[in-house]
Amino acid sequence: MPEATSFAQSTFETLFRAFKKTDEVSEVLKMFDLSNESIQEIMNLLRKDFDKGLSANEEERAESSVKMLPTYIRAIPSGSESGDFLAVDLGGTNFRLLSISIQNGRVQDTIEIPPMTQTIKTSDAETFFNYIAHHISLFVKKHDLSNKTLPLGFTFSFPVKQSSLTSGSLIRWTKGFSASGIENEDVVKLLKEALVRKGMSSTVDVVALVNDTTGTMMSCAFENPFVSAGLILGTGTNACYMESLDNVPKWDGDQDEPRQVIINTEWGAFGDNGSLDHLRTKYDERLDEESSNPRQQIFEKMISGMYLGELARIVCMDLVNKKLLFKGEVTEKFRTKNSFPAEFVSLVESHEKHKIEEVLNTMEVAEQASESDIENLRRVCAALSLRAAKVAAAGVATIVKKTGNFTTTIAADGSLFKRHPKFRNYMQETLTEILPEADITFMLSEDGSGKGAALIAAVASQMKEQ
Prior knowledge:
Elements: H1 2-20, H2 24-29, H3 36-53, H4 58-63, E1 69-70, E2 83-90, E3 95-103, E4 106-112, H5 118-121, H6 125-142, E5 150-156, E6 160-164, E7 167-170, H7 187-197, E8 204-210, H8 212-221, E9 227-233, E10 237-244, E11 260-264, H9 282-289, H10 298-301, H11 305-321, H12 332-335, H13 342-349, H14 353-362, H15 371-403, E12 407-413, H16 415-419, H17 423-434, E13 439-444, H18 448-465
Parallel strand pairs: 2-5, 5-8, 9-12, 12-13
Antiparallel strand pairs: 1-11, 2-3, 3-4, 6-7, 9-10, 10-11
Helix pairs in contact: 1-17, 3-15, 6-7, 8-18, 9-11, 11-13, 11-15, 13-14, 13-15, 15-17
InterPro entries: ATPase_NBD, Hexokinase, Hexokinase_BS, Hexokinase_C, Hexokinase_N
Enzyme class: transferase
Domain Hexokinase C-terminal: 229-459
Protein backbone atom coordinates (compact mmCIF):
# COMPACT_ATOMS: atom_id res chain seq x y z
CA MET A 1 0.00 0.00 0.00
CA PRO A 2 2.72 2.58 0.88
CA GLU A 3 4.39 1.90 -2.47
CA ALA A 4 1.15 2.51 -4.36
CA THR A 5 0.49 5.66 -2.34
CA SER A 6 3.92 7.14 -3.02
CA PHE A 7 3.50 6.42 -6.74
CA ALA A 8 0.11 8.11 -6.76
CA GLN A 9 1.38 11.06 -4.74
CA SER A 10 4.22 11.65 -7.19
CA THR A 11 1.72 11.48 -10.04
CA PHE A 12 -0.57 13.94 -8.26
CA GLU A 13 2.36 16.31 -7.74
CA THR A 14 3.28 16.11 -11.44
CA LEU A 15 -0.31 16.86 -12.45
CA PHE A 16 -0.54 19.62 -9.86
CA ARG A 17 2.51 21.30 -11.37
CA ALA A 18 0.97 20.87 -14.83
CA PHE A 19 -2.28 22.44 -13.67
CA LYS A 20 -0.37 25.37 -12.15
CA LYS A 21 1.51 26.19 -15.34
CA THR A 22 0.40 29.42 -16.89
CA ASP A 23 0.31 28.15 -20.46
CA GLU A 24 -2.97 27.93 -22.38
CA VAL A 25 -3.07 24.12 -22.30
CA SER A 26 -3.17 24.24 -18.52
CA GLU A 27 -6.05 26.70 -18.65
CA VAL A 28 -8.03 24.04 -20.51
CA LEU A 29 -6.99 21.18 -18.21
CA LYS A 30 -7.86 23.14 -15.07
CA MET A 31 -11.51 22.56 -15.97
CA PHE A 32 -11.00 18.87 -15.09
CA ASP A 33 -9.22 19.54 -11.78
CA LEU A 34 -11.80 18.40 -9.21
CA SER A 35 -11.19 19.77 -5.74
CA ASN A 36 -11.85 17.67 -2.62
CA GLU A 37 -14.79 20.00 -1.95
CA SER A 38 -16.29 19.10 -5.35
CA ILE A 39 -15.74 15.40 -4.64
CA GLN A 40 -17.57 15.79 -1.31
CA GLU A 41 -20.39 17.54 -3.15
CA ILE A 42 -20.67 14.61 -5.57
CA MET A 43 -20.80 12.25 -2.59
CA ASN A 44 -23.57 14.26 -0.91
CA LEU A 45 -25.64 14.40 -4.10
CA LEU A 46 -25.19 10.69 -4.76
CA ARG A 47 -26.12 9.82 -1.17
CA LYS A 48 -29.37 11.77 -1.55
CA ASP A 49 -30.17 9.84 -4.72
CA PHE A 50 -29.30 6.55 -2.99
CA ASP A 51 -31.78 7.30 -0.19
CA LYS A 52 -34.50 8.44 -2.58
CA GLY A 53 -33.94 5.42 -4.80
CA LEU A 54 -34.51 3.12 -1.80
CA SER A 55 -37.59 4.99 -0.61
CA ALA A 56 -41.03 3.40 -0.33
CA ASN A 57 -42.46 6.66 -1.68
CA GLU A 58 -42.95 6.46 -5.44
CA GLU A 59 -42.58 10.23 -5.92
CA GLU A 60 -39.25 10.25 -4.06
CA ARG A 61 -37.99 7.32 -6.12
CA ALA A 62 -38.92 9.21 -9.30
CA GLU A 63 -36.70 12.12 -8.17
CA SER A 64 -33.65 9.87 -7.95
CA SER A 65 -31.50 9.27 -11.02
CA VAL A 66 -30.27 5.92 -9.65
CA LYS A 67 -32.60 2.92 -9.60
CA MET A 68 -31.18 1.17 -6.47
CA LEU A 69 -32.52 -2.22 -7.57
CA PRO A 70 -32.78 -5.04 -5.01
CA THR A 71 -31.11 -8.11 -6.51
CA TYR A 72 -32.83 -10.51 -4.07
CA ILE A 73 -29.39 -11.94 -3.28
CA ARG A 74 -29.30 -12.05 0.51
CA ALA A 75 -25.94 -13.60 1.37
CA ILE A 76 -22.37 -13.93 0.15
CA PRO A 77 -20.71 -17.36 -0.02
CA SER A 78 -20.04 -18.81 3.42
CA GLY A 79 -17.41 -21.29 2.30
CA SER A 80 -19.66 -24.22 3.17
CA GLU A 81 -21.12 -24.48 -0.35
CA SER A 82 -20.41 -27.71 -2.20
CA GLY A 83 -21.54 -29.47 -5.37
CA ASP A 84 -21.73 -28.78 -9.09
CA PHE A 85 -23.25 -25.59 -10.49
CA LEU A 86 -23.80 -24.03 -13.90
CA ALA A 87 -23.73 -20.50 -15.26
CA VAL A 88 -24.91 -18.97 -18.51
CA ASP A 89 -23.21 -15.65 -19.23
CA LEU A 90 -24.96 -13.66 -21.94
CA GLY A 91 -23.44 -10.26 -22.65
CA GLY A 92 -22.70 -7.96 -25.55
CA THR A 93 -19.86 -9.92 -27.14
CA ASN A 94 -19.84 -13.30 -25.42
CA PHE A 95 -22.17 -16.19 -24.82
CA ARG A 96 -20.43 -18.48 -22.35
CA LEU A 97 -21.31 -21.66 -20.52
CA LEU A 98 -19.53 -22.49 -17.31
CA SER A 99 -19.64 -25.23 -14.70
CA ILE A 100 -17.97 -25.06 -11.31
CA SER A 101 -17.39 -27.84 -8.85
CA ILE A 102 -16.96 -26.77 -5.22
CA GLN A 103 -15.38 -29.23 -2.82
CA ASN A 104 -13.86 -28.28 0.54
CA GLY A 105 -13.69 -24.61 -0.39
CA ARG A 106 -11.86 -25.29 -3.66
CA VAL A 107 -13.31 -24.38 -7.03
CA GLN A 108 -12.70 -26.08 -10.36
CA ASP A 109 -14.31 -24.62 -13.43
CA THR A 110 -14.91 -25.53 -17.07
CA ILE A 111 -15.77 -22.91 -19.69
CA GLU A 112 -17.04 -23.10 -23.24
CA ILE A 113 -17.84 -20.23 -25.61
CA PRO A 114 -20.39 -21.14 -28.29
CA PRO A 115 -20.81 -18.64 -31.13
CA MET A 116 -23.48 -15.95 -30.83
CA THR A 117 -24.24 -15.03 -34.43
CA GLN A 118 -26.05 -11.98 -35.71
CA THR A 119 -28.75 -14.33 -36.99
CA ILE A 120 -29.47 -15.51 -33.42
CA LYS A 121 -29.22 -11.97 -32.00
CA THR A 122 -31.92 -10.79 -34.40
CA SER A 123 -34.17 -13.87 -34.37
CA ASP A 124 -37.30 -14.44 -32.23
CA ALA A 125 -37.83 -15.49 -28.61
CA GLU A 126 -38.25 -19.21 -29.27
CA THR A 127 -35.27 -19.47 -31.64
CA PHE A 128 -33.10 -17.38 -29.31
CA PHE A 129 -33.75 -19.36 -26.12
CA ASN A 130 -33.84 -22.71 -27.93
CA TYR A 131 -30.29 -21.93 -29.06
CA ILE A 132 -29.16 -21.26 -25.48
CA ALA A 133 -30.94 -24.36 -24.14
CA HIS A 134 -29.46 -26.48 -26.94
CA HIS A 135 -25.92 -25.50 -25.97
CA ILE A 136 -26.66 -26.06 -22.28
CA SER A 137 -27.81 -29.56 -23.20
CA LEU A 138 -24.66 -30.23 -25.23
CA PHE A 139 -22.46 -28.88 -22.42
CA VAL A 140 -24.12 -31.00 -19.72
CA LYS A 141 -23.87 -34.20 -21.78
CA LYS A 142 -20.29 -33.54 -22.89
CA HIS A 143 -19.10 -33.12 -19.30
CA ASP A 144 -21.13 -36.03 -17.85
CA LEU A 145 -23.31 -33.86 -15.62
CA SER A 146 -26.67 -35.38 -16.63
CA ASN A 147 -27.08 -37.62 -13.58
CA LYS A 148 -27.95 -34.81 -11.15
CA THR A 149 -29.96 -31.62 -10.86
CA LEU A 150 -27.72 -28.65 -11.58
CA PRO A 151 -28.54 -25.19 -10.11
CA LEU A 152 -27.87 -22.52 -12.75
CA GLY A 153 -27.08 -18.81 -12.42
CA PHE A 154 -28.12 -16.76 -15.46
CA THR A 155 -26.04 -13.63 -16.11
CA PHE A 156 -28.10 -11.47 -18.46
CA SER A 157 -26.20 -8.22 -19.04
CA PHE A 158 -29.03 -6.12 -20.42
CA PRO A 159 -31.41 -3.67 -18.68
CA VAL A 160 -33.77 -5.82 -16.62
CA LYS A 161 -36.50 -5.01 -14.12
CA GLN A 162 -36.00 -7.78 -11.57
CA SER A 163 -38.97 -8.85 -9.40
CA SER A 164 -37.37 -11.78 -7.56
CA LEU A 165 -34.17 -13.78 -7.57
CA THR A 166 -35.57 -15.92 -10.40
CA SER A 167 -37.56 -13.44 -12.47
CA GLY A 168 -36.89 -10.26 -14.40
CA SER A 169 -38.27 -8.58 -17.52
CA LEU A 170 -36.07 -7.22 -20.28
CA ILE A 171 -36.64 -3.46 -20.44
CA ARG A 172 -34.95 -3.01 -23.82
CA TRP A 173 -32.32 -4.71 -25.94
CA THR A 174 -28.89 -3.06 -26.27
CA LYS A 175 -25.47 -4.04 -27.72
CA GLY A 176 -26.78 -5.00 -31.15
CA PHE A 177 -29.39 -7.56 -29.98
CA SER A 178 -32.95 -7.26 -31.28
CA ALA A 179 -34.56 -10.70 -31.04
CA SER A 180 -38.34 -10.20 -31.12
CA GLY A 181 -40.82 -11.23 -28.45
CA ILE A 182 -38.39 -10.83 -25.52
CA GLU A 183 -38.66 -7.18 -24.48
CA ASN A 184 -41.06 -6.79 -21.52
CA GLU A 185 -41.00 -10.57 -21.00
CA ASP A 186 -39.51 -12.58 -18.10
CA VAL A 187 -36.21 -13.87 -19.45
CA VAL A 188 -35.93 -16.62 -16.82
CA LYS A 189 -39.38 -17.92 -17.75
CA LEU A 190 -38.40 -17.95 -21.43
CA LEU A 191 -35.19 -19.86 -20.65
CA LYS A 192 -37.05 -22.40 -18.51
CA GLU A 193 -39.60 -22.98 -21.27
CA ALA A 194 -36.76 -23.62 -23.74
CA LEU A 195 -35.17 -26.10 -21.30
CA VAL A 196 -38.51 -27.96 -21.14
CA ARG A 197 -38.61 -28.12 -24.95
CA LYS A 198 -35.07 -29.58 -24.93
CA GLY A 199 -35.94 -32.13 -22.22
CA MET A 200 -33.56 -30.49 -19.73
CA SER A 201 -35.99 -29.21 -17.09
CA SER A 202 -35.26 -32.06 -14.67
CA THR A 203 -31.49 -31.62 -15.04
CA VAL A 204 -31.10 -27.83 -14.97
CA ASP A 205 -32.75 -25.60 -12.36
CA VAL A 206 -32.46 -21.84 -12.97
CA VAL A 207 -32.11 -20.50 -9.42
CA ALA A 208 -30.77 -16.96 -9.95
CA LEU A 209 -30.86 -14.07 -12.42
CA VAL A 210 -27.61 -12.13 -12.12
CA ASN A 211 -25.97 -8.95 -13.42
CA ASP A 212 -22.23 -8.60 -13.90
CA THR A 213 -21.79 -6.28 -10.89
CA THR A 214 -23.20 -8.77 -8.38
CA GLY A 215 -21.26 -11.55 -10.09
CA THR A 216 -18.08 -9.55 -9.56
CA MET A 217 -18.88 -9.09 -5.88
CA MET A 218 -19.70 -12.76 -5.32
CA SER A 219 -16.63 -14.12 -7.11
CA CYS A 220 -14.37 -12.18 -4.75
CA ALA A 221 -16.50 -12.77 -1.64
CA PHE A 222 -15.95 -16.51 -2.02
CA GLU A 223 -12.27 -15.91 -1.27
CA ASN A 224 -12.58 -12.86 0.97
CA PRO A 225 -15.44 -12.51 3.50
CA PHE A 226 -14.65 -8.80 3.96
CA VAL A 227 -15.95 -7.94 0.47
CA SER A 228 -18.93 -5.60 0.83
CA ALA A 229 -19.37 -4.16 -2.66
CA GLY A 230 -18.82 -4.85 -6.34
CA LEU A 231 -17.53 -2.30 -8.86
CA ILE A 232 -17.46 -2.35 -12.66
CA LEU A 233 -15.07 0.05 -14.41
CA GLY A 234 -14.96 -0.94 -18.04
CA THR A 235 -16.93 0.04 -21.12
CA GLY A 236 -19.57 1.17 -18.63
CA THR A 237 -19.62 1.61 -14.87
CA ASN A 238 -21.87 0.34 -12.10
CA ALA A 239 -21.68 -0.72 -8.47
CA CYS A 240 -23.56 -2.91 -6.03
CA TYR A 241 -23.27 -3.33 -2.28
CA MET A 242 -24.76 -5.25 0.64
CA GLU A 243 -27.46 -3.22 2.41
CA SER A 244 -29.45 -3.83 5.57
CA LEU A 245 -33.17 -4.39 4.94
CA ASP A 246 -33.81 -1.70 7.56
CA ASN A 247 -32.42 0.80 5.05
CA VAL A 248 -34.51 -0.45 2.11
CA PRO A 249 -38.04 0.91 2.73
CA LYS A 250 -39.19 -0.22 -0.72
CA TRP A 251 -38.23 -3.87 -0.03
CA ASP A 252 -41.10 -6.15 -1.06
CA GLY A 253 -39.56 -9.52 -0.22
CA ASP A 254 -39.71 -11.58 2.95
CA GLN A 255 -38.42 -10.23 6.27
CA ASP A 256 -36.60 -13.42 7.25
CA GLU A 257 -32.92 -13.75 8.04
CA PRO A 258 -30.49 -12.77 6.70
CA ARG A 259 -31.93 -9.26 6.94
CA GLN A 260 -29.85 -7.86 4.11
CA VAL A 261 -29.85 -7.71 0.34
CA ILE A 262 -27.39 -6.74 -2.39
CA ILE A 263 -28.48 -3.50 -4.05
CA ASN A 264 -27.61 -2.89 -7.71
CA THR A 265 -27.25 0.91 -7.76
CA GLU A 266 -27.21 1.40 -11.55
CA TRP A 267 -25.14 4.50 -10.74
CA GLY A 268 -24.16 5.13 -14.36
CA ALA A 269 -27.36 7.20 -14.64
CA PHE A 270 -26.46 9.43 -11.68
CA GLY A 271 -26.75 13.04 -12.82
CA ASP A 272 -29.40 12.37 -15.45
CA ASN A 273 -31.67 14.64 -13.38
CA GLY A 274 -29.26 17.58 -13.84
CA SER A 275 -27.62 17.38 -10.41
CA LEU A 276 -24.08 17.21 -11.86
CA ASP A 277 -24.49 19.81 -14.60
CA HIS A 278 -22.53 22.50 -12.74
CA LEU A 279 -19.54 20.14 -12.41
CA ARG A 280 -19.40 19.23 -16.09
CA THR A 281 -17.17 21.01 -18.58
CA LYS A 282 -18.08 22.28 -22.03
CA TYR A 283 -16.27 19.21 -23.36
CA ASP A 284 -18.52 16.89 -21.31
CA GLU A 285 -21.53 18.72 -22.72
CA ARG A 286 -20.34 18.28 -26.28
CA LEU A 287 -19.59 14.59 -25.72
CA ASP A 288 -23.11 14.13 -24.34
CA GLU A 289 -24.79 16.06 -27.16
CA GLU A 290 -23.01 13.99 -29.81
CA SER A 291 -23.64 10.65 -28.10
CA SER A 292 -26.35 8.16 -29.05
CA ASN A 293 -28.11 8.81 -25.71
CA PRO A 294 -28.04 12.54 -24.85
CA ARG A 295 -28.91 13.46 -21.23
CA GLN A 296 -28.54 9.82 -20.18
CA GLN A 297 -25.77 8.03 -18.23
CA ILE A 298 -24.14 11.31 -17.19
CA PHE A 299 -22.02 9.76 -14.38
CA GLU A 300 -20.90 7.01 -16.73
CA LYS A 301 -19.86 9.57 -19.34
CA MET A 302 -17.49 11.17 -16.80
CA ILE A 303 -15.82 7.84 -15.98
CA SER A 304 -16.10 4.87 -18.26
CA GLY A 305 -14.09 3.45 -21.12
CA MET A 306 -16.86 3.94 -23.67
CA TYR A 307 -16.45 7.72 -23.37
CA LEU A 308 -12.98 8.46 -21.93
CA GLY A 309 -11.13 8.21 -25.25
CA GLU A 310 -13.65 10.29 -27.16
CA LEU A 311 -13.56 12.95 -24.45
CA ALA A 312 -9.76 13.07 -24.79
CA ARG A 313 -10.10 13.42 -28.57
CA ILE A 314 -12.60 16.28 -28.21
CA VAL A 315 -10.22 18.14 -25.84
CA CYS A 316 -7.29 17.52 -28.19
CA MET A 317 -9.27 18.81 -31.16
CA ASP A 318 -10.00 22.02 -29.25
CA LEU A 319 -6.27 22.38 -28.59
CA VAL A 320 -5.61 21.75 -32.30
CA ASN A 321 -8.11 24.42 -33.29
CA LYS A 322 -6.38 26.83 -30.89
CA LYS A 323 -3.04 25.86 -32.52
CA LEU A 324 -1.80 24.53 -29.18
CA LEU A 325 -1.36 20.96 -30.46
CA PHE A 326 0.21 19.62 -33.68
CA LYS A 327 0.58 23.26 -34.87
CA GLY A 328 -3.14 23.31 -35.60
CA GLU A 329 -3.03 20.55 -38.21
CA VAL A 330 -4.24 16.95 -37.80
CA THR A 331 -5.30 14.13 -40.07
CA GLU A 332 -8.85 13.18 -40.93
CA LYS A 333 -8.34 10.16 -38.68
CA PHE A 334 -7.93 12.39 -35.64
CA ARG A 335 -10.99 14.40 -36.61
CA THR A 336 -13.13 11.27 -36.84
CA LYS A 337 -15.54 10.66 -33.97
CA ASN A 338 -14.61 7.73 -31.68
CA SER A 339 -11.27 7.20 -33.43
CA PHE A 340 -9.37 7.58 -30.13
CA PRO A 341 -10.50 4.71 -27.83
CA ALA A 342 -9.91 4.47 -24.08
CA GLU A 343 -7.19 1.92 -24.82
CA PHE A 344 -5.15 4.79 -26.33
CA VAL A 345 -5.55 6.80 -23.13
CA SER A 346 -4.12 3.83 -21.22
CA LEU A 347 -1.22 3.48 -23.67
CA VAL A 348 -0.36 7.18 -23.39
CA GLU A 349 -0.65 7.01 -19.58
CA SER A 350 1.93 4.20 -19.55
CA HIS A 351 4.56 6.84 -20.45
CA GLU A 352 6.33 4.13 -22.47
CA LYS A 353 7.78 5.54 -25.66
CA HIS A 354 6.87 2.62 -27.94
CA LYS A 355 3.27 2.59 -26.73
CA ILE A 356 2.87 6.32 -27.29
CA GLU A 357 4.41 5.92 -30.75
CA GLU A 358 1.84 3.19 -31.46
CA VAL A 359 -0.95 5.66 -30.67
CA LEU A 360 0.61 8.43 -32.77
CA ASN A 361 1.10 6.09 -35.72
CA THR A 362 -2.47 4.78 -35.55
CA MET A 363 -3.78 8.34 -35.40
CA GLU A 364 -1.46 9.20 -38.32
CA VAL A 365 0.23 12.13 -36.54
CA ALA A 366 3.59 10.55 -35.68
CA GLU A 367 5.58 12.48 -38.30
CA GLN A 368 4.37 15.90 -37.18
CA ALA A 369 4.34 15.29 -33.39
CA SER A 370 6.98 17.28 -31.52
CA GLU A 371 8.18 16.51 -27.99
CA SER A 372 5.93 19.33 -26.81
CA ASP A 373 2.93 17.75 -28.58
CA ILE A 374 3.62 14.40 -26.95
CA GLU A 375 3.90 16.05 -23.53
CA ASN A 376 0.59 17.88 -24.04
CA LEU A 377 -1.12 14.69 -25.18
CA ARG A 378 0.13 13.01 -22.00
CA ARG A 379 -1.18 15.89 -19.92
CA VAL A 380 -4.62 15.64 -21.53
CA CYS A 381 -4.84 11.88 -20.92
CA ALA A 382 -3.58 12.25 -17.35
CA ALA A 383 -6.01 15.05 -16.47
CA LEU A 384 -9.04 13.18 -17.84
CA SER A 385 -7.99 9.87 -16.27
CA LEU A 386 -7.47 11.50 -12.90
CA ARG A 387 -10.85 13.25 -13.07
CA ALA A 388 -12.55 9.96 -13.98
CA ALA A 389 -10.82 8.14 -11.11
CA LYS A 390 -11.78 10.87 -8.64
CA VAL A 391 -15.43 10.68 -9.71
CA ALA A 392 -15.38 6.88 -9.40
CA ALA A 393 -13.72 7.15 -5.99
CA ALA A 394 -16.49 9.53 -4.89
CA GLY A 395 -19.00 6.78 -5.72
CA VAL A 396 -17.07 4.17 -3.73
CA ALA A 397 -16.70 6.56 -0.79
CA THR A 398 -20.47 7.18 -0.82
CA ILE A 399 -21.13 3.45 -0.45
CA VAL A 400 -18.54 3.16 2.34
CA LYS A 401 -20.06 6.09 4.28
CA LYS A 402 -23.62 4.87 3.75
CA THR A 403 -22.88 1.40 5.11
CA GLY A 404 -20.48 2.63 7.80
CA ASN A 405 -18.14 -0.15 6.74
CA PHE A 406 -14.86 1.78 6.78
CA THR A 407 -12.58 -1.26 6.74
CA THR A 408 -13.62 -3.19 3.70
CA THR A 409 -12.70 -4.80 0.39
CA ILE A 410 -14.26 -3.72 -2.91
CA ALA A 411 -14.44 -6.34 -5.66
CA ALA A 412 -13.58 -4.72 -8.99
CA ASP A 413 -13.62 -5.73 -12.64
CA GLY A 414 -13.62 -4.10 -16.06
CA SER A 415 -11.09 -3.18 -18.72
CA LEU A 416 -10.49 0.36 -17.41
CA PHE A 417 -9.67 -0.92 -13.93
CA LYS A 418 -7.53 -3.78 -15.21
CA ARG A 419 -5.69 -2.19 -18.13
CA HIS A 420 -5.23 1.49 -17.33
CA PRO A 421 -1.79 1.59 -15.67
CA LYS A 422 -2.64 4.29 -13.11
CA PHE A 423 -6.42 4.31 -12.63
CA ARG A 424 -6.39 2.11 -9.53
CA ASN A 425 -3.67 4.23 -7.91
CA TYR A 426 -5.52 7.44 -8.73
CA MET A 427 -8.63 6.03 -7.01
CA GLN A 428 -6.72 4.72 -4.00
CA GLU A 429 -4.99 8.06 -3.41
CA THR A 430 -8.27 9.96 -3.78
CA LEU A 431 -9.94 7.71 -1.20
CA THR A 432 -7.03 8.23 1.19
CA GLU A 433 -7.51 12.00 0.88
CA ILE A 434 -11.30 12.15 1.21
CA LEU A 435 -11.75 9.28 3.71
CA PRO A 436 -8.53 9.23 5.75
CA GLU A 437 -10.25 7.19 8.47
CA ALA A 438 -11.04 4.34 6.07
CA ASP A 439 -9.03 1.28 5.03
CA ILE A 440 -10.39 0.37 1.58
CA THR A 441 -8.78 -2.38 -0.47
CA PHE A 442 -9.57 -3.23 -4.08
CA MET A 443 -9.64 -6.87 -5.13
CA LEU A 444 -9.60 -7.81 -8.80
CA SER A 445 -12.44 -10.15 -9.71
CA GLU A 446 -11.62 -13.10 -11.89
CA ASP A 447 -14.53 -13.89 -14.21
CA GLY A 448 -17.25 -12.32 -12.10
CA SER A 449 -19.95 -12.63 -14.72
CA GLY A 450 -19.30 -16.38 -15.10
CA LYS A 451 -17.85 -17.78 -11.90
CA GLY A 452 -19.81 -15.23 -9.84
CA ALA A 453 -23.10 -16.34 -11.40
CA ALA A 454 -22.35 -19.99 -10.58
CA LEU A 455 -21.45 -19.02 -7.00
CA ILE A 456 -24.73 -17.12 -6.70
CA ALA A 457 -26.45 -20.32 -7.86
CA ALA A 458 -24.58 -22.18 -5.08
CA VAL A 459 -25.66 -19.69 -2.41
CA ALA A 460 -29.25 -19.58 -3.72
CA SER A 461 -29.60 -23.35 -3.80
CA GLN A 462 -28.20 -23.64 -0.26
CA MET A 463 -30.67 -21.02 1.01
CA LYS A 464 -33.46 -22.86 -0.83
CA GLU A 465 -32.61 -26.08 1.02
CA GLN A 466 -32.53 -24.27 4.36
